[in-house]
Specification:
The complex is a heterodimer. Chain A is mainly α. Chain A contains 12 helices and 1 strand. The relative contact order of chain B is 0.15. By secondary structure, chain B is mainly α. In chain B, a hairpin with an 8-residue loop joins β2 and β3. Chain B has a single domain, classed as MetI-like (MetI-like fold), CATH 1.10.3720. In chain B, α2 runs antiparallel to α8. The chains are: A mainly alpha, B mainly alpha. At the A-B interface, α1, α2, α4, β1 and α5 of A face β1, α1, α2, α3 and α4 of B. β1 of chain A pairs parallel with β1 of chain B, so a sheet runs across the interface.
Amino acid sequence: MTTQEAAAIAETAPAPRRRGRARSGRGGTGSWVVGAYSLIALAIMMIPIVYTIVFSFNDARRSNIVWRGFTLDNWLGICDDDRVCESFGNSILVGVTATIVATVLGTMIAIAIVRYTFKMRTLITVLLFLPMATPEVVLGSGLGSQFVNMGVERGLWTIIVAHIMFCISFVVVTVRARVASLDPSLEEAGRDLYASPGQVFWRVTLPLLMPGILAAALLCFALSFDDFIITNFVSGNAETFPKFVYVAASRGIPPQSNVIASAVFFLAIIIVVAAQLSAGARRRKLAKTG
Amino acid sequence: MAFGAFANSGPDLSASAPRRRSYVALILLAPGILYLIATFVAPLGSLVLTSFKEPGGNFEVGEYVYAFRWENYAEALGRFGEIFGRTFLFSLLATIFALIISYPLAYFIGVTLRRFPLWQSLVLILVIAPFFISFLLRTLAWKAIFSDEGPVVSFLQAIGLFGPEQYLNGTAFTVVFGLTYNYIPFMTLPIYASLERLDLRYVEAGGDLYAGPVQRFWRIILPLSLPGVVSGTLLTFIPASGDYVNASKDFLGSTNTVMAGNVINDLFFQSFYPVSAAVSILLMIAILIPVIAYVMKSGSEDLL
């Protein structure tokens, strides 16, 4: 996932629904055409996903381009290609570290923006907006040339530094929404019951913000895990999974990389479907209790 | 509204509690803002400084000293003028194609499927599904599909549209195709978010006033979904213009499809830092000017 993808996902945050009694949306040749067009577009969008998954089962030796028959060997021996395995491990390490730091820093900013007045508000807003509006290649080459100018040796930790940077704005975007929709009377109730400011924060505010914070953390991890464009400039000799794929592209990708991508894909789909189902169940429960 | 995730998240209940002024704000803001200054603002400054450097030291490859060599910019523009033009053209085409594909798709999910919430969520998951599988591997999948022995070329040859010597990979077509494909979800999701909120009673009212389907679309539906179109356009155009994976010769491009991102990347790794930095700065300026103009014209009151 790239940073702009995250912005696109963040935009679809659930909104209060105002459903009109829709007569005009119903029937007509128009909606048939739109439906057919959409299904064709979706089918084409699925082609590379299906291709990647299917070729994770290809009995390929060196280049995984021609189909040579079905095998489970790639799935059973992910670490047969140790560079695939090592780069995958690096990606997890970078993703987890960057996510933790960026989520903490971003959540703090989000709370400050919603709850407090401070000087230079516009400037800070622009500063948070710009990393999302700058092409990633500029972010990457900028940080890369700064490391070169400073004579810093690039490696895993410089990748982490870069990933924290591009995650912060997205954490702020996601968590801010949650802070804004938090009912202040809940915290007031805590204070009325003689909770100290610390107790109010840890036992009322933070638990209520948790869904937003978790969403932000997942977004940041997904961004970090799939980032190549920025990573390439700041990685030195260290290799993350996307960088391994990019480097290997010129001489053939081992099928194990398709296995890793497919496994991550299935895991992500399971998480998203589970989140959807539990949100749906919660809505129905709320509707029942009124 | 451009990246308006902030706006779309339910009622703003915090408005009832006035914002406070407190030293706590400083404590909350300082670490993150200082981090962004060190890792976003400073690198941009570093990029500007680097873009004026001149060869120095022992005159070995990659050794440069601080100077004011504006010729780096002249070189960047002179050598890569055509590439800047191509970058703009490819990104613009990808944005237009993505809009043509995404608008009906977003309408289908946001309006047609409104009465079927389960199907709506399912199709929405399909739209974001590409995000969950490596962007590089998806692009390589298209490379295999468009390869000389692949199904598309074989089909075009079989029906006589393509001669035996003709190919697809490495042409402007595959690069624009790859860019369009990769950024369709960025375009679809914000437009969907706008259309999902569209109150159909306005459309009905238009019908009651004898507006035909075309008028209802141009004068009611499109204006109401314009914020989504603006967001989607920015979210497609900005990353497309900086992309160097699709246009890379190992992916869907060739030496004939080089884009600004490829130049920045290649020069950087050949240790020609100053010209690479100059191209980066020019790209950033070239992106920011139309983006700012577009945001101002479409009346986005808030950035975040």
